[in-house]
Design a protein that fits this description.
alpha+beta, three-stranded antiparallel beta sheet, 14 helices
């Protein structure tokens, strides 16, 4: 990837839907600031090696339901509670995705402290992934005429144990969360739900490499991408409505660029490039 346009073109690749005669991408997107960051859930990251992740998951959900009951209105199924917990920072088996490639690109470039690292946007074809689902789940999608699930569609399964027992082979469901606040709406949010609390999407995608691709977000382009996303109004102020999001946006927006090079300006005769100049300054500083 050599330019902003290269990244955008790669993200929108494959979005033409021949049946609809419209550009309707079958991909879900997840942006990460570091290209080697794993696709593991917060529940897996919380658990210790060799721990009983299923038992940990049940304990977290049981206590979340007990203590959050007075704050949660309308949550009645295990799927409502799972989505609500994920939304409010509870470690769950869910993984955050989005329908929007630009929102994913925001999350790959939101942390200026990691601008020296190459980032990545994962793209997973959830329409094709549905073909690997157990028959009962495929029938639900066909009956609803949908390519993704909602919590209501999963209410046929009253427990996670019943859901996990649908197949011995791991599978992944893409789930639209209930719109409990504007953040979910603005982020065009989507969850990836694995059929086991200890499963990771990395392992599943390694078995199905034809269903995904990785779009590189080179470190050298992050400032340009970030500035153009801000100008396109894809930022914390919009994606996290409220004073917290506004403060996060302003903090990042006014962060000094720390000797950022002009990507469009050639060095003057006798002038060292930005990289060479920084290298020279480091030697002097020592």
């Amino acid at each position: 990837m050599k330019s902003w346009l290269d990244v955008v073109d790669a993200l929108y690749e494959g979005s033409w839907n021949q049946g609809l005669k419209r550009f309707r991408s079958p991909y879900a997107f997840r942006g990460l600031a570091r290209k080697n960051h794993p696709l593991s859930s917060s529940l897996v990251r919380l658990s210790e090696p060799g721990a009983d992740v299923k038992r940990l998951e049940l304990a977290l959900l049981r206590n979340f339901r007990k203590y959050a009951h007075g704050e949660a209105t309308g949550a009645d199924s295990i799927w409502d509670w799972l989505a609500l917990g994920q939304h409010h920072g509870l470690p769950t088996r869910l993984l955050d995705w989005t329908y929007s490639p630009l929102v994913a690109l925001h999350f790959a470039t939101e942390n200026t402290e990691e601008f020296q690292e190459d980032g990545v946007v994962w793209c997973v074809n959830f329409v094709e992934a549905n073909k690997r689902l157990p028959p009962r789940l495929r029938r639900i999608l066909q009956q609803e005429g949908s390519d993704t699930f909602t919590v209501e569609m999963l209410c046929a399964f009253e427990s996670l144990r019943e859901f996990d027992a649908l197949s011995r082979d791991p599978f992944v469901v893409f789930l639209e969360p209930p719109a409990v606040d504007r953040r979910i709406l603005h982020q065009f949010a989507l969850f990836a739900l694995m059929s086991s609390p200890s499963a990771t999407l990395d392992d599943w995608l390694r078995r199905h490499p034809d269903l995904c691709r990785r779009v590189a977000v080179p470190a050298m382009l992050k400032w340009e991408i970030r500035d153009k996303l801000d100008q396109a109004n894809v930022n914390e102020r919009v994606l996290f409505p409220g004073l917290d999001g506004l403060s996060r946006w302003l903090t990042r927006y006014y962060t000094p660029t720390r000797d950022r090079d002009d990507p469009h300006q050639e060095p003057l005769p006798g002038q060292k490039s930005g990289k060479a100049a920084r290298s020279r300054r480091r030697r002097i500083d020592r």
